[in-house]
Amino acid sequence: MGVKQAIKSLDAFPRAEDHLLQKTQSGAVVSIIGLVIMAILFLHELRYYLTTYTFHQMAVNLKRGETLPIHINMTFPSLPCDVLSVDAIDMSGKHEVDLDINMWKLRLNGEGHIIGTEYLSDLVEKEHTAHKHDGDHQEDSENKIHLHGFNQDTETVIKKLKQALANGEGCRVYGVLDVQRVAGNFHISVHGLNIFVAQMIFEGTNHVNVSHIIHDLSFGPKYPGIHNPLDGTTRILHGNSGTFKYYIKIVPTEYRYLSKEVLPTNQFSVTEYYSTANDRTWPAVYFLYDLSPITVTIREERRSFLHFITRLCAVLGGTFALTGMLDRWMYRLLEAVMKPKS
Description:
Layout: H1 2-8, H2 25-50, E1 53-60, E2 67-76, E3 85-90, E4 95-96, E5 103-108, E6 114-119, H3 140-143, H4 152-166, E7 170-180, E8 184-189, H5 195-202, E9 212-218, E10 233-235, E11 242-256, E12 262-276, E13 284-291, E14 294-301, H6 305-341
């Protein structure tokens, strides 16, 4: 008997006889409120436990020999598709003019509606050995060339493009560029045209309106929570034209899902610079990019079940204790108020 009594003395939850318990309306109200609060907190903690969080880690980038995918989706509301070209150059010396692999363009009318789809390789002069695509491609030797050499087909094309400009045609350029993983730039401009053809069409560099809307510009697939700072950028020119330059710093990124699947991609930051056009440079939109030597690894993780149980006990136990104290205070207050009346 002594052992049993000793064990009973350790009971932290003593029971009272039913006839000694008194149930009150205030206690019922406090109990209902407490149960509602505990149910809400339980659902909140359960959602918190089921939601994954990300852990960021940085390390030196050891990858090499890979290509860099550039996803482009832009609209030029004031330039027809036939005059636009996408050119790319990198630090290794590789220079590509009028890239048309995996690149498409949509012809737009003056109201922005699609009127045609085709590859981005129409009406482009392929002989660019004498042109510099950093904007200054008017050499002294070219200034000595006369324009009387245009044939009938070229004159027809010039008339067609002048008519497209008069009709307010625009162009939407989209696709994927696969470039070498070194610093470089790509730009969208009228550099693909013969310089004298461009002079006949636009009658001066100030009439090349490179107003543009960047719907999407990214350097790899998207992962949950990524933010590309140039998405939704709108730059509209209402006076003289000029050159836009976007200086981009690319950060290689790996996103690791809970399933252990790895998604290689890139984040980037950007600064912007604009310069007005002059007689020596043709307006363009440049994207000059450089790569960071640091790789960011973003890993999805889930909170442990023991952590969930600990938080749940703390929240529910605290709520139960608080409602118990509130019930006692309300009972004593009501007893003090009702006692003189009785």
